[in-house]
């Protein structure tokens, strides 16, 4: 446990803590920082991972399907547990459980806990979480354009086109010229520190949290129950080793900041989602340490 805490969580806390201090003492434009990460750095990281990863297609497909099934099971469980509440609050809890922070939190922790092999597989989980968020989120929160609007919004994300280019080049056996590839690698290397700084800045700027019943249920299911659900789904899919470890570790990740942005955009229950993001992020640090300590037993 102490070794997992030192090797996995402490590096993340150091970088996110620096961002927290910056967000607490300076008025920073968190939106601009998020745009730099989401639209500039993350696509480069995804492209670099797709061109260099050793994950086979069959393993990747099984991993992504298991992630989707676990997200659906968790969301349905939260919907049952929340009971009779206003529809906006119910949707907020469901989205908070379904959309995990597989980027800002998930990728750095996966790298430290599972090495490059686990990181490559966690990149696939991050892509699924992005797609899930930008389709399910608008649909649940009531996007004016429905599914069509959600799909158009998804196609505007550079990370999606990075996936298309990366997969296309891999299938055709192509590579970028050395100079271009080095530039992509430099951007990819800058991604994890930047997303952790952005996470810390967002937490530093957060206001006082309200622990409502909806926030507590959403937080407990998202961080405490989802690792168990992910383990069960992974075993049902016949997974083992690093893929199963990556899936279970992803279950301990907090609610994604994107869930808050979607609630804000589509006028959902913003306060519930925002409070759940903060609570799950704080809660996920010790939980992720516990999960990381148990991962070696999932062989």
- Helix content percent band: over 70%
Strand content: under 5%
* CATH architecture descriptor: Up-down Bundle
Spatial shape? globular
Average the pLDDT over all residues and give the rounded result: 85
Rg over alpha carbons = 18 Å
The biggest beta sheet is recorded as:
none
CATH class: Mainly Alpha
The unreliable regions are none
CATH-assigned fold name: Na+/H+ antiporter like fold
Briefly note the structural class of the backbone.
mainly alpha
Structural commentary:
- It is a single chain.
- The protein is mainly alpha-helical.
- 81% of the residues lie in helices and 0% in strands.
- The longest helix is centred in the middle third of the chain and has 36 residues.
- It has twelve helices and no strands.
- Helix 1 runs antiparallel to helix 12.
- The model has no long low-confidence stretch (mean pLDDT 85).
- The chain has one domain: Na+/H+ antiporter like fold, CATH 1.20.1530.
């Amino acid at each position: 446990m102490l070794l997992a805490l030192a090797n996995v969580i402490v590096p993340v806390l150091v970088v996110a803590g620096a961002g927290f201090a910056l967000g607490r003492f300076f008025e920073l434009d968190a939106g601009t920082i998020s745009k730099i990460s989401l639209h500039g750095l993350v696509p480069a990281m995804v492209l670099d991972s797709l061109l260099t990863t050793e994950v086979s297609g069959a393993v990747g497909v099984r991993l992504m399907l298991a992630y989707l099934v676990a997200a659906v099971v968790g969301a349905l469980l939260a919907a049952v547990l929340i009971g009779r509440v206003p529809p906006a609050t119910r949707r907020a809890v469901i989205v908070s459980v379904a959309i995990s922070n597989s980027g800002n939190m998930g990728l750095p922790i996966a790298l430290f806990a599972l090495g490059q092999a686990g990181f490559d597989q966690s990149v696939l989980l991050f892509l699924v979480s992005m797609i899930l968020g930008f389709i399910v989120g608008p649909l649940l929160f009531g996007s004016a354009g429905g599914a069509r609007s959600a799909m158009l919004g998804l196609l505007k994300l550079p990370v999606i086109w990075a996936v298309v280019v990366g997969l296309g080049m891999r299938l055709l056996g192509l590579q970028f010229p050395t100079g271009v590839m080095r530039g992509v690698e430099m951007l990819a290397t800058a991604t994890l520190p930047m997303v952790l700084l952005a996470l810390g800045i967002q937490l530093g700027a957060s206001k006082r949290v309200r622990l409502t019943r909806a926030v507590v249920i959403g937080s407990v299911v998202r961080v405490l129950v989802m690792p168990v659900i992910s383990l069960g789904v992974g075993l049902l899919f016949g997974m083992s080793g690093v893929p199963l470890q990556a899936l279970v570790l992803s279950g301990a990740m907090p609610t994604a900041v994107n869930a808050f942005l979607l609630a804000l955009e589509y006028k959902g229950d913003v306060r519930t989602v925002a409070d759940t993001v903060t609570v799950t992020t704080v809660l996920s640090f010790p939980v992720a340490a516990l999960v990381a300590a148990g991962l070696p037993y999932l062989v």
